[in-house]
Amino acid sequence: MDMPKRILVACGTAIATSTVVAKAIEEALKDRGIKATLRQCKATEVKSLVSDADLVVTTTPVPSDLGVPVIQTLAFLTGIGREAVIEQIVEALKDK
Amino acid sequence: MSNAIVKLLYPEGVLLNSEFTSAEEVIKAIGDKLCIAGYVKESFVDAAIEREKTLPTGLPLGGRINAAIPHTEIEHVLKPALGMATLKNEVNFRNMVSPDEFVPVRLVFLLALEQPKAQVEMLQEVAGVLQNSLLVSSLLEKRSYEEVIKALGNE
Question: B interface mutation test: which of A9, A19, A39 has the most B CBs within 10 A?
């Protein structure tokens, strides 16, 4: 059994957009049979939580030198480029 | 059907075809309505304006019309609600994912979230509205709360 991939979903401070994004990613990965555990956090918390993550997906800028892939995107809010971003996420989780 | 939006959209907080010149003015205009009605604390408007400066909420939608979803920390909210404004002229908000860029916005949803995880449906519905470009265009043409509700309820 594969270990579930760990995705950190970040947004501003009120955890509003990361709520939508996390759900959308969860469903998209489920459709592809990929197990993932998602955790939401504020952008300011990313650095301290990233050691337990395989990937960061965020709607707001975060530091880039985190040691894990970071995908900065509005695709799960606006729908623009959504499929491409899902592929990016799948790819990023592949080597973990 | 945008049931959660319809339930939470505060009628007096729906400002249609309105004329504002800045993001701050829009946030204040809708926010003041939500405050008077007891949905948010007095601190909400200033907090949302401040937040917009560092963590902006402008969302480019890929067409002629862009949106913004200003909000702030839940400590400023008393009861969950949604306010909305359609803007006669574009008002610049900064791009959520690239805060150095401006996004000319004509549709604004002001989110008074008391508990984001409990309001995930409302948030998903807002995202759904923004992803529906026909609906976004039609909202800009509405001139009454009833017309807005009808458009959101039918989509």
Answer: A19
